[in-house]
């Protein structure tokens, strides 16, 4: 009889566990489905706003029409200088050329209709052709322009940001073990220096190491002419990358270390940490179980946003150091009113940020038990 009761209880427990697992899976699916829809809506709205802003509400059309009229007028004038034509013929050629180029650029349609067309093309990663900018290989396609400059940005930002993340994280953990020490006070005192942008540090680094000491180059990515060997090319790129990478590193190092140090100190003062110390657990075990584990969501968030930052580049820093990356492309596109390039780079960043946020939600649901999926009473 007792055995039968135990079997019944065991079967009930197993059945309840299965039902709970199915309910959790359903809540998880609903949660991520809602998050996916919200992210898609956010991306669409953000992309459309970017198109409106990049076009200045249609003001760029006026600039483009003026540019087209000037180009056509100069071309017709050059033709008229070689062969005689009457004023009426010249005027007709100018007007016909303007109409053809405006139609080719889509300027013959209302701005609202073109903005919706731009939105559809942007969401499908069909960025089209740049108006003024051109790649080093002579291509005007925005996709080729971005892909050509992307490796340089990934190299610079990836090196500096990964180094920044690892060094600041481990230094913050080391400093948090010695609260109130000289190094701890030094980190706190120097944290406001991170308010200075990296390009500002870059200017001083150029003046000191390039202009005065003359041991590092002023800018660029490689020597001119480039070294013929692969090892020489690698060393040349490494030498040119020292100053921009260090300026990106030093501008955020202190505030990152201070932030992580504060996180670790907050969790190390919790009651469960004192209880673990009273039980006689080692310092390493306490750090691993009761300090690092609760801060894991914040660490994951910082790392994920750092990955997004790698793709976006540093516009002014790359411009100061003449680094041929996405940041330089964005600066040139803004200065030339090249809407296609501006929208193209922004769309890629929006997609990357949306994917990152979605993956963060998924990781939070796994790593942090405090995240509520909804639907539970």
Structure write-up:
There is one protein chain. The chain is mainly α and 377 residues long. It has 2 domains: 32-123, no CATH class; 149-367, MetI-like (MetI-like fold, Orthogonal Bundle). Helices cover 76% and strands 0% of the residues. The chain has 14 helices and no strands. The chain has helices spanning 2-54, 59-82, 87-104, 111-123, 142-176, 182-190, 198-212, 230-268, 271-278, 283-292, 296-312, 315-320, 326-336, 339-367. It is flat. 21% of the residues are buried.
Topology (SSEs and partners):
Blueprint: H1 2-54, H2 59-82, H3 87-104, H4 111-123, H5 142-176, H6 182-190, H7 198-212, H8 230-268, H9 271-278, H10 283-292, H11 296-312, H12 315-320, H13 326-336, H14 339-367
Helix pairs in contact: 1-4, 1-14, 2-3, 5-8, 5-11, 5-14, 7-8, 9-10, 11-14, 13-14
Shape from CA axes?
flat
- DSSP summary, beta strand count: 0
Per CATH, the architecture of the largest domain is Orthogonal Bundle
- CATH homology-level superfamily of the largest domain: MetI-like
CATH top level assignment of the largest domain: Mainly Alpha
Which percent bin holds the helix content? over 70%
Count helical runs: 14
């Amino acid at each position: 009889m007792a055995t039968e009761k135990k079997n019944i209880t065991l079967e009930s427990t197993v059945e309840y566990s299965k039902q709970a697992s199915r309910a959790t899976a359903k809540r998880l699916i609903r949660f991520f489905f809602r998050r996916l829809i919200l992210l898609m809506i956010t991306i669409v709205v953000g992309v459309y706003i970017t198109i409106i802003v990049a076009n200045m509400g249609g003001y760029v059309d006026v600039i483009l029409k003026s540019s087209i009229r000037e180009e056509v007028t100069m071309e017709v004038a050059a033709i008229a200088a070689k062969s005689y034509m009457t004023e009426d013929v010249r005027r007709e050629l100018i007007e016909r050329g303007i109409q053809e180029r405006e139609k080719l650029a889509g300027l013959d349609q209302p701005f609202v209709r073109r903005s919706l067309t731009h939105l559809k093309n942007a969401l499908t990663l069909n960025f089209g052709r740049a108006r003024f900018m051109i790649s080093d290989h002579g291509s005007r396609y925005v996709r080729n322009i971005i892909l050509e400059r992307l490796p340089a940005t990934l190299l610079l930002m990836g090196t500096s940001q990964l180094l920044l993340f690892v060094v600041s994280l481990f230094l913050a953990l080391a400093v948090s073990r010695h609260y109130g020490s000289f190094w701890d006070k030094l980190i706190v005192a120097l944290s406001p220096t991170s308010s200075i942008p990296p390009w500002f540090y870059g200017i001083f680094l150029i003046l000191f190491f390039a202009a005065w000491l003359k041991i590092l180059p002023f800018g660029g990515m490689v020597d001119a002419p480039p070294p013929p060997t692969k090892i020489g090319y690698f060393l040349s790129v490494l030498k040119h990358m020292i100053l921009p990478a260090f300026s990106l590193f030093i501008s955020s190092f202190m505030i990152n270390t201070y932030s992580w140090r504060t996180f670790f100190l907050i969790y190390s003062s919790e009651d469960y940490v004192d209880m673990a110390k009273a039980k006689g657990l080692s310092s390493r075990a306490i750090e691993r179980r009761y300090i690092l584990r609760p801060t894991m969501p914040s660490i994951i968030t910082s790392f994920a946003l750092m990955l997004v930052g790698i793709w976006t580049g540093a516009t002014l820093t790359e411009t100061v150091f003449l680094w041929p990356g996405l940041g330089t492309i964005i600066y040139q596109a803004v200065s030339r009113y090249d809407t296609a390039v501006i929208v193209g780079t922004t769309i890629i960043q929006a997609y990357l940020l949306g994917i990152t946020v979605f993956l963060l939600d998924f990781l939070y649901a796994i790593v942090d038990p405090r995240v509520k999926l909804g639907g539970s009473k």
